[in-house]
Amino acid sequence: xxxxxxxxxxxxxxxxxxxxxxxxxxxxxxxxxxxxxxxxxxxxxxxxxxxxxxxxxxxxxxxxxxxxxxxxxxxxxxxxxxxxxxxxxxxxxxxxxxxxxxxxxxxxxxxxxxxxxxxxxxxxxxxxxxxxxxxxxxxxxxxxxxxxxxxxxxxxxxxxxxxxxxxxxxxxxxxxxxxxxxxxxxxxxxxxxxxxxxxxxxxxxxxxxxxxxxxxxxxxxxxxxxxxxxxxxxxxxxxxxxxxxxxxxxxxxxxxxxxxxxxxxxxxxxxxxxxxxxxxxxxxxxxxxxxxxxxxxxxxxxxxxxxxxxxxxxxxxxxxxxxxxxxxxxxxxxxxxxxxxxxxxxxxxxxxxxxxxxxxxxxxxxxxxxxxxxxxxxxxxxxxxxxxxxxxxxxxxxxxxxxxxxxxxxxxxxxxxxxxxxxxxxxxxxxxxxxxxxxxxxxxxxxxxxxxxxxxxxxxxxxxxxxxxxxxxxxxxxxxxxxxxxxxxxxxxxxxxxxxxxxxxxxxxxxxxxxxxxxxxxxxxxxxxxxxxxxxxxxxxxxxxxxxxxxxxxxxxxxxxxxxxxxxxxxxxxxxxxxxxxxxxxxxxxxxxxxxxxxxxxxxxxxxxxxxxxxxxxxxxxxxxxxxxxxxxxxxxxxxxxxxxxxxxxxxxxxxxxxxxxxxxxxxxxxxxxxxxxxxxxxxxxxxxxxxxxxxxxxxxxxxxxxxxxxxxxxxxxxxxxxxxxxxxxxxxxxxxxxxxxxxxxxxxxxxxxxxxxxxxxxxxxxxxxxxxxxxxxxxxxxxxxxxxxxxxxxxxxxxxxxxxxxxxxxxxxxxxxxxxxxxxxxxxxxxxxxxxxxxxxxxxxxxxxxxxxxxxxx
Length: 859
Description:
The chain is α+β, with helices and mostly antiparallel strands. It has a six-stranded mixed barrel. The protein has a six-stranded mixed barrel with strand order 13-15-20-17-19-18.
């Protein structure tokens, strides 16, 4: 062997490769945990990255279809004036859309519900097609002309509409039935299977009803003062034109108008930003799985090297240099890592195709199916770095052990650690951070997520080390079986540290998600229904306020409240135009959006004044304003500063009289900006209100009485709105839970690998007990006690860490009342104990079935 080594470096590598291949023969099955643990982590990261790339590419390719044009202008307080329409028409083809929440009724049954009414003109859709499903389940993709024909007046003169399938189920309707909205009857012509611009529509409280703009205006519900978004999409004539420049020219031509605007890329970017943040979180969770898998890989490699002690001794005794020994096992590790990465990449590449097959039209974003090398290479990079970080130490140990020590069976654990091992670990940590920066441009968010993941791993590692330290200092039990369990937990073959860290990390993530979800669910199902109005009312006509108040005052409900409301756009902050104000930079919705504002003589119940004072009840002077504290901080405004809002086409400049803090957790009605009386009454505001009913029966009675007397008033049931919110959160929570389950699965692999790696030592110790007369019950007791501690320790640590993490999120960014979900978190203890005992039972069955003497005679 020494004669070969002085040859070329290529010959040395070839020799190491030959030795590595031969040494792996028959031993690959023992390294299955190494491959599986890394493959699972790489596969999780690759799958998340591939799905994200699929959706982001779909958003980029379909951005014009998602928006419905190249640019969009939205006005809430009224229709676009002719001059603006003329400007838009000069840029290209224009499509006008009106969108509002209104009440719809099934005349045949009298059932009513809130719907999202969308009226589209004859040019809709400018881009894409509307897919409609007929009564026989056949589908047609309709362009603008065909779609308008489908919505045209029928033989009876009644216009048509296509609706979400959920509306048919809610009102017990079928295709061909009549749907009444306001003063108009619409014939249901089909089910809306695909609305090309649905993704950009945002959150909707009711099912979609899509009809012609003329029919929507015929309902009488789109009058001035109603909460209607009127959008004007433009498909630019010049395909090479800059959409931002086009919008800039429109603003320059109409500086006095207030509107929201966005381009096709901005519409897809908004969805993309959400997708990127979700991807980052899930990738960090996948990285946690990979880190857990790294622990398993390190344990598997350490056990493998321990089994190869004699082989290494023979190599060195025959003159093999240390670098050849290390190269041999480094090549083994590399080959296994490549195998694991290949399996993970295959899993990740297949994820988008599986999602398209399993979910089809239910995918939340348009998907551009394909294999994306970037996310796959990034996942391989993560896997390679983790494999190097966790296997460097056991591989380096063999290099420093003299052959004589190996032959005397001191073992690898007696080797002095390589000085380079900590350096390699630090370099790998830096590489992981750099790879994480490729996920998003928000580097602060990357650092926060990365620090949270690494911090949790370090905390669990420290806690597991502390557990072993504590067990070592406990006096061994007198009971022989328990003494053996104690020895196994603190001895050289203990896997308490690796199992506690790996399984604890997975259970912590799963527990934190469960605790946060439990608090959100409690807020939605218990707190909001008990404090928020049961029914919300919008578009109460100003001339019907007295009659509406009288009706609600006579009804069975309690805690009725009503407020005037107008839509307002921010024009200036402290006398500086909003486009130039420092406090408005980075907040497009502030510069271009609109708010609901009101006026009141008295402060809202539950509000807390932070600075300033409320105006007198009989105030009659220049406009004064009360501003919510978070917005005051955002705008860098305080008491005495001015704020100019555009309301009903005119600018109203008000002095900030006070800044107040609003408690939004109860779900009650409130406004960010409240004016003193006297400034807005002449604008003719519509009114909004809410009522809290004591029972479901009272809620139904109020609903029926209001819909009968005021068919034009939009009513939103809090229960239905909360259900819609819960459904959205549930979809996000499902993805997070799935990734948490992957982390737990990685922890289980580590547990299985650790048990398998030390099975021979456990078997020999148990056989010694058998040989000296121990019964099977003693062995069962010893192993059960050991695995019970191994299950309870990570579960208890996860309980504490998950509780702390969930509290920080719920009481911090979410600003909700905290209640510890002891049931959900208590399940962690049972899950950890059950999982560990289940794996332990498999090892226990092999030990109990073995005969003592063959084991004791084996070398």
